[in-house]
Design brief:
Layout: H1 2-30, H2 34-57
């Protein structure tokens, strides 16, 4: 059971990484403002923290 949960968490983290990268690309393409890029950077940092916590639980 634990192996399955770990695999699921890995998949979720990978999906979050892809979504974060895509959002950064779209935002940079639409608006080349430093404020917007800073906002996306904070969002990706939050996702990273969540991933670390989930891996520690496993």
């Amino acid at each position: 059971m634990m192996d399955r949960t770990c695999k699921i968490v890995d998949r979720m983290s990978k999906m979050m990484d892809r979504r974060a990268k895509v959002t950064e690309r779209t935002v940079r393409a639409t608006e080349g403002r430093a404020e917007v890029t800073e906002g996306t950077g904070k969002a990706t940092e939050r996702n990273g923290k969540v991933k670390d916590e989930s891996q520690n639980d496993g």
